[in-house]
Amino acid sequence: MSATVHPSNDVESTTDVLSTSSTAVTGRKLSRSQKVLIIVGCFVGLGLIITVIVVPIVVKRQGSSSSLASSQTTMTSVDMLDVTLFTSSETSMAAHVVTPGPPCETLTFAPSFTRNLEYSLRLIATGNFNGDKYTDLVIFYLLENTMEILFGCTNGSFEGQGSLRTLEGAVSSAKIADFNGDKHADIAMIYLLDYGLSVILGDGTGNFGSETRYPTTEDSNLVAVGDFNGDSLLDIIVLSLTEKVAVFVGYGNGSFSMKTSFSLGGEPMSVVAGNFNGDKYTDFAVIRRDDTNGMQMTASIFLTYANGTFQERKLFPRDHYATAIAVEDFNNDKYMDIAVTSHIHHNVIIILGDGNGSFTEQIINLPRSGPSVTDAGDFNGDNYIDLIISHLNSDDLSVFRNYGNGSFEKQMTVKTMNKPTHLIHGIFNDNNRLDIISDCAFGDCISINLNTC
Fold this sequence. Notes:
alpha+beta; 4-stranded antiparallel sheet; disordered N terminus; Tachylectin-2, Chain A; 7-stranded antiparallel sheet
């Protein structure tokens, strides 16, 4: 209000002063040149007033608009960092909102160090479970029916005693999200060789409520989260070893019910969710074992439609043996893309989406054989999503820096402690850069590489 009112008053009072000065000199006859000089002087003075008073106000207002636009762009960037439609909530569950520094000229990571675990891990995930500014870890152990929360701290060491909880089985798949809208991280998980889905709700202090079980008719294997029915509430899909997909509709209060199921046409090995055709329904991409040849791994997307049905589109040739899949916006066009690693051909296929469910491909050839796990995130702070790939029987991670158009810079190598089979990222210390965590060879420790960018 003051920005629009005060300048107007200032201009009006200045104009009055100019009128008074002009009247004061009308008592004598002015020459033509004097009149011209007075008129020019008036225009020059008015121009100075506009420059000094009005322009800064306009610039300030434009700056406010730019800040808003920048804020909206930043939120869009954050939204793209996850694979589901509800990425802003899930991202807030995974890490605090940060203001990174300028982009790094050279991406570097500190030498890795380890943190010993209670038992051998089977699965690892990130979330903000106690509401502070650090990313926490949830570890699901291999043989013991136990999960452990390791709370993040200033130096990325996860020092201190973790929080252990006994579960009803060994977890084979889990997703972190806010299922009841209270801004706290909850967990959806599948037990190994079990018929059902389990959900526990977090209270924001690192503790969880009682476990709620939702039975399925099939042997559950994998879980993914998204808005699959377009009601702006998080739903869950459960993929089974018997090649079925069960859709659990969420009610926004942490409760679910199974509404439909359909055949997948192959044993699922990995699943990620994302919106591939720009509608209001979350789709999913899956790697599965080929029914006709158990040694082949294919990749497909399943597009979700308003009537609750899913339509498959195959992405990946069956002779490539897909091993890992990630979903992000790799070419910065606001459409979700897919990265799939090929074990046979030692490459990564970047499948660029056009927002209507169609894709084009480009290939990154890898310097090492046996790509096994992939992770994606903006590791150098330039708002482009980079790739990190681990290799079978190797201590090295391959890091590919994104140019922002879906093409990637020649890889750099990050040394880990022991031949990782799990790979995640998060902000684990105070520098507001994405760090890397991988598992040790026998699963009894984690290897931490802090980003020194």
